[in-house]
Amino acid sequence: MDYASSFGGKVAWITGASSGIGAALARELATRGAHVVLSGRDEARLAEVAATCGETLLIPFDVRDDAALAEATAKAIAWKGGVDMAFANAGISQRSRALKTSMQVYRDIIDVDLTAQIAFSQSLIGHMAERGSGALGFISSIAGKVGVPMRTAYCAAKFGLAGYADALRAELTQNGVSVHTIYPGSVATNVSKNALTAEGTARGRSDKAIDEGIPADVAARQMLDSIAAGEREIIVAEGGELAMGETRRTPGALLDQMAGMVAKGYMEKLEQQ
Q: What pTM did the predictor assign?
């Protein structure tokens, strides 16, 4: 991404854009002059967000549907001739003890929060690499840095998403595509209310920490400011959650080391073995 020109005129595609962090990112990107593509399953709620974002493109679909993703990708690229930024944000959380949680809950959360977000990214990286520019933002969580009780499935997915993003960043360093992994703490959204119970039903109530968390619009501004500054790991949290995230922050030198391996032909050598 060309950080000098920031977000003006860029096409930014967001999954999970109908509420919470996704909706806040859409509004903030629109304020900064971006052309926003909004995706999620609820077209009516996407339309409500679009009404606050100026010129937008709505592409409602289920991120787990590979055929729908392929069609959505073609539409997003065709809209303005390319996608400059993409935010893998769709996800669902969990509030249940591992001892009581069904395996289907693990499968469902990992499918949405990890596998589908990888598929979303994979649908765009060829396009971005061919153009020699682009930026990918992955919404992980402090629970993607620290194992948090009552969230074993969620932690597994968010840790996995961060690992994918780190490896992808190293691979794409020679292609002009930047990768930003975002670790929010408690942000005031419906994430806890919509979280899955041990049986896989929606919890239906929120947490005090979430209700008193960072306002979503404030979190979105911090995320985009950090992307514009070229930060690779972005921790958006306060208090103890911020301290947890910082304790597990990946040293920049290690990220540089992985990029350096790619620059020296590591992937080409491995392919020839």
A: 0.94
